[in-house]
Design a protein that fits this description.
- The complex is a heterodimer of chains A (about 270) and B (about 250).
- Chain A is about 40% helix and about 25% strand.
- By secondary structure, chain A is α/β, with parallel strands linked by helices.
- Chain A has a domain of about 60 residues.
- The radius of gyration of chain A is 19 Å and the shape is globular.
- Chain B is mainly alpha-helical.
- Chain B has one domain.
- Chain B is built from twelve helices and no strands.
- In chain B, helix 1 runs parallel beside helix 7, helix 2 packs antiparallel against helix 4 and helix 4 packs antiparallel against helix 7.
- The radius of gyration of chain B is 18 Å and the shape is globular.
- The chains are: A alpha/beta (about 270), B mainly alpha (about 250).
- At the A-B interface, helix 3 and helix 10 of A face helix 1, helix 5 and helix 6 of B.
Chain lengths: ~270, ~250
């Protein structure tokens, strides 16, 4: 393992286009081992697209990525062995129980049997779902699903933890709880934490460095204090607005989103 | 192999939790047995071909297996829409083992469904010639399930939403079944139809079951099995190739 202070994520001139639309436009940045790094930006700024490219789910149009020394395009499994992800959209299997979702994840990520069972018990308690461990996920509320998803993301202890708007829809208690757990993991196991958010105070509180991304470009990088200083503003929110403007962004739903809605309506009728 | 096992286990758990699907899947074969089996029985006998139920039952079992397994494979599209696919795609495991486990799961559940249909055919008056060969027919069901679960996963990897599903059903699955000789003997039909049936893997699966269950077949058991194993490997290879190219 490389020493702290070395770059564990390196991104150079990364671009991703969808037809005429440029979702990510020539961005470059790096994250050091053990760093807590935030991607802050309005809806549709390119945060999720970037995370998908970093986590081998989407191929870049151009540019170079290195994750723990591996290139997602050439050695996706090398990257996968070093990362953990909490996705923005749901990714649980609703026909399995809470426990099974965690167990399957643990097996897929090669967590040894004893450690797996121990951590699953601890994490279910941690997200206060241990009473519902054998309930099917489809009977859970939105908040419960989100908590289970977070627990699953924390089950294997990767070198880099990606979280794509992890606190969306979480209550403040769970949110605090989760960040505490991650900060411990970050300190004790030097896990690098890379997350995206549009909560300013969250980025300010948790992240050591923040990259403000807008229209697919990184408009500023620095600590919360540096960003405030750079824009001559009092709060990070004011700095954010100064950097990204105050127009409201619309995120276009893709085919998958629309179908997910249809599927929900359909499954709702059946139940 | 642990990956393949866990993916297989997932398919089984989902199958046993979804009883309505199992019961729903019985409707179509039952309808075929009644409408065709009894409807055409007299004509079939008059043409000197014997008891139509005996001929039809393996074909109807084959139908439930191909429909069940292709549908299972294509449930990959649901996983893509409801997000679980992402979870498997970012896991540090080989794409082949994910694909293999899912295919095996699809094959197992399809064969289980085939067994239920087999029980139903008994009620309709079907009786195997040799009961000792029934277990071997079950193995053929698994093999057949494997072929078509792999095919379903292939399509599932290529389609990003359910809109293409009807297309696949109407232009791929239905013709595969209806043109295979599952419903009629291949002798005495137009040459073109005979050739089509010879290029249809369903023909070989149904034929193998017919040989084992009622001792009547168009090809030899050795040919049936070789064709199915070859097609299974081909679909599995293509399927894992398409699967590994999925982007989200």
């Amino acid at each position: 393992m490389e020493a702290a202070g070395q770059n564990v994520i390196e991104v150079e001139h990364l671009t991703r286009t969808f037809g005429d639309f440029t979702a990510v436009d020539d961005i470059s940045f790096s994250v050091k081992t053990g760093e807590r790094f935030a991607f802050l930006g309005p809806n549709g700024a390119g945060k999720s697209t970037t995370i998908k490219m970093l986590t081998t789910l989407l191929a870049p149009t151009s540019g170079r990525i290195s994750i723990a020394g591996h290139d997602p395009a050439k050695d996706p499994n090398g990257v996968r062995q070093n990362i953990g992800i909490v996705f923005q959209d749901p990714s649980l299997d609703e026909d399995l129980t809470a426990w099974e979702n965690l167990e399957f994840h643990g097996v897929l990520y090669h967590v040894p049997h004893a450690a797996r069972r121990e951590r699953i018990d601890a994490l279910l308690k941690f997200v206060e779902l241990d009473g519902r461990r054998d309930s099917l996920v489809k009977t859970f509320s939105g908040g419960m699903k989100r908590r289970l998803e977070i627990a699953r993301g924390l089950l294997h202890h990767p070198r880099i933890m990606f979280l794509d708007e992890p606190t969306l829809g979480l209550d403040p208690q769970t949110r605090n709880h989760m960040w505490q757990y991650l900060q411990n993991l970050n300190k004790e196991e030097a896990v690098t934490v890379f997350f995206s958010t549009h909560y300013m105070e969250e980025a300010d509180k948790v992240a050591e460095r923040i990259a403000v991304i807008d229209h697919g470009r990184i408009v500023a990088v620095g600590s919360g204090a540096e960003l405030k200083e750079k824009t001559g503003t009092e709060s990070l929110e004011a700095a954010f607005l100064a950097l990204t403007g105050s127009e409201i962004r619309e995120e276009e739903g893709n085919a998958a989103d629309r179908l997910r809605m249809m599927g929900r309506a359909w499954r709702g009728n059946r139940r | 192999m642990k990956t393949a096992y866990i993916m297989w286990l997932r398919e089984l758990k989902k199958f046993f939790r979804n009883r309505s699907r199992v019961i729903g899947a019985l409707g179509q074969p039952l309808l075929f047995l009644l409408a065709f089996g009894y409807g055409f029985g007299a004509v079939f006998r008059a043409a000197g071909q014997g008891d139509y139920i005996q001929f039809l039952a393996p074909g109807v079992i084959g139908m439930s297996i191909i429909f069940g397994s292709i549908f299972n494979g294509m449930s990959l599209i649901w996983d893509r829409q409801f997000g679980f696919l992402k979870e498997t795609l970012v896991a540090p495991v080989s794409r082949f083992s994910i694909m293999f486990g899912r295919t095996l799961g699809g094959a197992t559940t399809a064969a289980l469904q085939g067994c239920v249909v087999l029980l139903v055919t008994f009620v309709a008056g079907f009786h195997p010639e040799n009961w000792l060969l029934v277990p071997f027919a079950l193995l053929v069901m698994v093999l057949m399930g494997f072929v078509f679960a792999a095919l379903g996963l292939m399509f599932g990897s290529l389609l990003s939403d359910m809109q293409g599903f009807q297309l696949i059903m109407n232009f791929m699955v239905m013709p595969l079944f209806f043109l295979s000789g599952a419903l009629f003997p291949l002798t005495g039909i137009p040459t073109v139809m005979q050739w089509i049936a010879r290029f249809d893997p369903v023909s070989y699966g149904v034929d193998a079951m017919r040989i084992l269950l009622v001792n009547r077949g168009e090809f030899s058991l050795a040919l049936d099995l070789s064709v199915m194993v070859a097609v299974a490997l081909l679909f599995l290879a293509l399927g894992s190739r398409f699967f590994s190219k999925i982007q989200i």
